[in-house]
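Same chain as my last thread, 94 residues:
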Amino acid sequence: MIDGKSIRAIVKRFSSMEGVRGVIVCDQEGLPIQSDLDTETTEKTAAYITSLIGRARNICDALKEGELAFVRLETEKGEVMIANTEGLNLIVLK
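reply #2:
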């Protein structure tokens, strides 16, 4: 498991990238650990993404594609990138 200092460094690194609107790190249950967004946005986004990740894992299992590693959603406002690793979800809104 990644420690708190490393998580803060990850959020800071991604936050400083051009075009990034927000970064959230949450656990597999959807509980936010670190974020650079307001509390309400962080909690809602983490909950929605955790639900999406659960469904995506089910798809991977059903198709026998192995473990889910990354999801990318393109939206009208930009994109949402989700890395699923080491018991954490890294969510980047760009």
